[in-house]
Write a structure and sequence with these properties.
Elements: E1 7-9, E2 12-14, H1 16-33, H2 46-56, E3 60-66, E4 72-78, H3 83-101, H4 109-115, E5 116-120, E6 123-124, E7 142-147
Parallel strand pairs: 3-7
Antiparallel strand pairs: 1-2, 3-4, 5-6, 5-7
Amino acid sequence: MSAEEQVHTGSGAMNHREAMENIKQVLNQLVTSDPLLCDLPSEVTPEEINSQIALEYGQAMVVNVRRSDDIIMPIVITQNATVLDLKHAIERYVNLKQVREGGKQHISWRYVWKRHWLYFKSQKLMDDNKKLKDYEIRNKDEVTFIKRLKEKQPIPS
């Protein structure tokens, strides 16, 4: 099956590219006309729509992640999310933002997490499997994204 294969609709046939453009137009109309979704960007992803709906129904929360350059990233995650879920959400947010702005496409997240910590109220979010609620992180709380300091090795005696 090729990407140009014809998609049959009630009004005729269209190729894959035309069908995708049609879907994008319908999504844009839905997003701009719905008061719940109107804050989303024009090139919205289904994941962003689901996150916004979950947020509205109280099934998700926003965690504001402050970078070292004082830029705040509003990250939407589920209420029972873990530190690892937050890290993945940050990755998706940054990658999507870069694609939309035409910036650098690849970031080594393994390197980023090796060199940076997430902090909340002076405590490192070290355990990826620990829930954010266990760190007492709630809706609209601010988590700081800072560079790890090199840990001093104890001098052997």
